[in-house]
Design a protein that fits this description.
Length: 133
């Protein structure tokens, strides 16, 4: 499963935005849907960025969380707290300056975190089309 030999850039000294965007890329590569990034440092002291993504099933939600933790560890980001892994409807991963919310579709629709965040806080993400990838 993790047998690629791709060299990963260290993120130990990277700024929060670069870390958050790298996390978004990892989730996209693992087939997460509706991934959104918000800059929240002006509205909360607990993080600078919220990354929100949706998995296609509870198994996919767990897999996305596990892969994100693994990929960040390869990049030197090892200090993370994880909540919600047992239920896999909403897994929260707190990396300090970036908090990642991975939902199943029903939980994302129910909690609708985006509604609590201002549209002006949403950051543009670019994911290549299959033709560009």
């Amino acid at each position: 499963m993790h047998e690629d030999n791709k060299v990963r850039e260290s993120l130990v000294h990277a700024d929060g935005e670069k870390v958050a965007r790298t996390m978004a890329d990892v989730l996209w590569e693992k087939q997460a849907v509706d991934t959104e990034l918000y800059q929240v440092s002006t509205t909360t002291i607990i993080a600078d960025y919220y990354l929100i993504a949706t998995g296609k099933s509870s198994t996919h939600v767990k897999s996305l969380a596990d892969e994100l933790l693994y990929e960040m560890e390869l990049r030197g980001i090892t200090d993370a707290r994880v909540e919600g892994r047992s239920g896999a409807a909403w897994i929260l991963i707190d990396f300090g300056n970036v908090i990642v919310h991975i939902f199943d579709r029903a939980s994302r629709d129910y909690y609708h975190l985006e509604h609590l965040l201002g549209e002006e806080q949403r950051m543009e993400l670019y994911f290549p089309t299959p033709e560009e990838a």
